[in-house]
Each structure stands twice: as structure tokens, then as C-alpha cells.
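Quick one: structure for this chain?
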Amino acid sequence: MGLRRFVPGGLRFPLAACIFRLLILAFCFLLLLAACVPQPLTVTREPVTMRLVAADSCGPLAEKLVAAYEESHPWVTVELEVFNSSAAEQTLRAGGADLALLSWLPEATSASPLWSQPFARDGIAIVVHPATPFTETGLAHLLALFRGQVQEWGGMVLTIVSREEGSGTRAAFESTVLGDRGVALIAVVMPSSEAVLDHVARTPGGIGYVSTFWLGESVADGVRVPPVEGSFPTADAIADGSYPLVRSLFLAAAAEPTGEAREFAQWVLGSNGQVIVASVSNW
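Got it. Here's what it folds into:
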């Protein structure tokens, strides 16, 4: 009789079944453990509307800040209105806005003081028609121009263009350049930065002033920006004070902001908001 090979065939299937059952038990145990681990909560925020007013100088910056904030805070809608700085302040005081971006803080009056916090440094750029003869200017030269003492240069009649009363840019310009003397009565007065740029671009011999935040707008393509006291209004020159026409911009509220207004103010003052401020003011 030949040798017979022993093959434990009767053991193979029961062993596989046992292994399969063990795997099933292990899988169920893992599912049970996962069910016991606390899961992160998904919170749906209630829609919120915040009212923001901005001075005309802050208009281009305010639009970019609002767009970025709404993108990162999709439950928030920001209603933005742009006026001159005085009208923006009055709207804020009257309860028509939760927060304001102002280009000039008024001097102390009988009215209750506003809560305010500087959030940006801004230069006031001199803008001239490309055909205007002079290629540089200075504070004494600007004083003579905007007081009407110099009305012609290089055989060309000059047209000075100023902002309206209530403009924070006008208040800052007059404070630095004219002191306690106002702009000459011969000045053409415009109601917005865009209107100043448009008039100067269309008027040979035109000279005006706008916030540097407006220099990146397409409406500024038709003007030239001369240096003042040898310095251009670049971001570095504004930051280190070598450019002479500089002022602070302010976040303001009737009282210390709360709720979404506080969240927005903190965001503007934080790294995310300041990156946008730097990008808009980088001329």
C-alpha cells in the first residue's frame, strides 16, 4: 500500500470563518469607539448686517476691506455708504451707521467724543495735468499756489482745484499747507476725489490734491504726481515721514463698538485687514 498524504482540508474553512468573524468584531469595535469620540459641532451663524460709512478718501480702501471681510465672514452683510468725512461723522452720530472710516477727526466740540482708533497712514498726493509746466513742488510753493499768489507758470495759466468744505482731505491739506488761511476764492471746488482727478486731467495747468488711496484707481491715469519737497508719496515715504503731507485715518464709533462692529474693527486692525491696507496704499 502506498503512502497517503494527510491534507487537513477539514480545518481550512472553519479557520477562515473564525478569522472573518474576528475581523467583523474588530470592525464593529472600531465603529463603537468612533461613535464615542466627540465630533466637532458645525454651527450655522445667524445672518448679520453691519452699517458702515466711509469718508470719500477711504472709499477705495473701504470697498476692498468690505469685500474681503464678507468673503471670510459669509454670514455678514456690510452696507457701505461713502460721504465726505464731515457727513460720515454726522451720519454716525445720528445712529445711521455702526462704524465709520474717517479721514479727519474733528476738533473737540460740545458734542460727545467719538471712540476712535487709527488704522492707516495716508498721504495726500498733489496731482497735476501732464502739461502743467513744473515737475516738482514744495510746501511754500503750494501755499503760494493755493492762496492765489501764483496763477501762472511757464506761460501757462494755472487752475487750482480743491475739495469742498467738510472734506477731511481738505482739512488735512489746509492744516499742513495753509495753516489758518483758507484756499483762494479762485479755486475750483469739487465734491469728491474722483471729481478732482477728472477735472485736473481735463484742464491743462490744473493742480489739485487727493488721497494716495485714489492713485491706484483708473480715474487717476490722466494725471501726473510730482514730488513734494523732493519726495514722492510712496508707502515707505509715508511710513517714515519723509513725505510731508501725511495724516492718519480712523475707525470711529459713537461709543466703543460691540457685536459685529467690534469684530470688523478688530479684523481691520489685525493682520488680515492690514495686509489689504498696505496693498491699497502701495503707490
